[in-house]
Amino acid sequence: MAVFRKVVEQHSFSVAAEALEMSAGSVSKYVAALETHIGTPLLARTTRRISLTEAGRGYYAKCVRILDDIEEAEKSTGQLHPTPRGLLKVRAPISLGSAHLGRTIADFLARFPEVKLELTLNDYFVDPAEEGYDVAIAIAANDREPMRGARPIGRMARALIAAPAYLARHGEPAAVPELKRHNCIVYNRGQLPDEWRFVAAGGDRTVRVAGNCRCNNSLVLREALLEGAGIGLLPTFLVADDIAAGSLRVVLPEWTPESRTVYAVFPQPRHPSSKVREFVDFLANSFAVDSQWRLGFAQEETAGTPPAAARRLTA
C-alpha cells in the first residue's frame, strides 16, 4: 500500500523507486502483486503517464487514511501531542487564492516544517475522501446543511457592485426590486445563483435577477464588472481595492448581501490526523483574527466602506 501510494503521488514508478530507495522493478512488482490481490487494475499505464482507474481512486483514498493512521499511531506512542508530518493535500476555491491564502500556508509550514503541503485550486467541490484530499475548503450559503465532516471556519462578506460607467448609462437602482430591470452578472455556482438575498434594518429581501453573462469564476466576473458589463454580487475581499479606488461603486449600500460560510471538509471527522487537525485549527484562527471573516460577526459597516482587513485572510 505504501509503495502504491508513493507511485500515485509521484506519478512515476522510477521517481517513486528513488524516493523509496528501491529498484523500479521492485516497485512495479509490488503494485502488480497488489492489483492481483485486489483483483482489479488500480493504475492505467501509458508510455507518457500513469493515472488512477476508478477503482484505484477509491482504493488510494483509503490507503492514505490507513497509512496515515498507522503513522499517527506510531508517532503518538508515548507522546501527548504528536508532531504533524507528511504530505497534506488541500483543495480550495480559486477565489481564495486571492485572499492571501499563500501567506497563511507559509505561516503554517513555518510552524510545522515536517509537513509538505500540496494545494489544488478549483471551483468544483469534490468529496475529499473520493479524490484523495486531506482537507477541502468549501464556500456555501449560511442555511446549508453541513456535510459530513464539515467544520465552519469563517464567514465571507459579499458586495453588490457596478462600474460608474454602467451606472451612468443605465441609472442606479433605488430599491432591491429594481435590480430586475438591470443586467445582473451572475456567479452560477451553488444553489439558486439567480436569487440574491439582502438584509437591512427593515428585514430581509430576495430578488430573482437575470443578465447576459454567467460564469463559475468570480475573478472573471470582476473583470467584466470593471468593464461596465452590469451589476454583480462578489466577495468583498475581491473588490475592496476597486471600491477604494473608485473603479467599482457599491449599489444599494443600505442593503447588505447575504454572506457565505467557509467550511473545512475532511474525510475523518472523528479522528483526523494531527496534520489535518492542526491545519484546520490554524486556518480557522487566521479567519478569526479578521472581523470580516470571523464567524458570527455582525456586519456593522456597509458594503460601501469595506475595511482594509476585508482584503486579507490574516491580519
Number of structurally distinct domains: 3
Low-confidence segments: 297-315
Order of helices and strands: HHHEEHEHEHEEEHEEEEHEHEEEH
Query: Tell me, what is the CATH class of the largest domain?
Result: Alpha Beta
Sequence of strands across the biggest β-sheet: 4-3-5-15-6
**Can you count the helices?**
10
Relative helix content: 25-40%
CATH architectural category of the largest domain: 3-Layer(aba) Sandwich
Mean pLDDT: 83
* CATH topology assignment of the largest domain: D-Maltodextrin-Binding Protein, domain 2
Q: Could you name the CATH homologous superfamily of the largest domain?
A: Periplasmic binding protein-like II
Shape: elongated
Largest sheet at a glance?
5 strands, mixed
* CA distance, first residue to last residue: 42 Å
Beta fraction of the residues?
Answer: 15-25%
The radius of gyration is 23 Å
Structural class estimated from helices and strands: alpha/beta
Tally of strands: 15
Quickly list its features.
315 residues, alpha/beta, Arc Repressor Mutant, subunit A, D-Maltodextrin-Binding Protein, domain 2, 3 domains, 5-stranded mixed β-sheet, 10 helices, 15 strands
How would you sum up this structure, described in words?
The strands form four sheets. A five-stranded mixed sheet has the order 4-3-5-15-6, with helices on one face. The protein is elongated, with a radius of gyration of 23 Å. It is α/β, with parallel strands linked by helices and 315 residues long. It has three domains: 1-80, Arc Repressor Mutant, subunit A (Orthogonal Bundle); 83-139 and 147-152 and 260-309, D-Maltodextrin-Binding Protein, domain 2 (3-Layer(aba) Sandwich), CATH 3.40.190.10; 158-258, D-Maltodextrin-Binding Protein, domain 2. It is 35% helix and 23% strand. It contains ten helices and 15 strands. The protein has helices at residues 2-10, 13-20, 24-38, 54-76, 101-111, 128-131, 164-170, 218-226, 236-245, 274-288, and strands at residues 43-45, 50-52, 86-92, 115-121, 135-141, 150-156, 158-162, 184-187, 195-200, 203-208, 214-215, 231-235, 249-250, 256-257, 260-265. The longest helix has 23 residues, at 54-76.
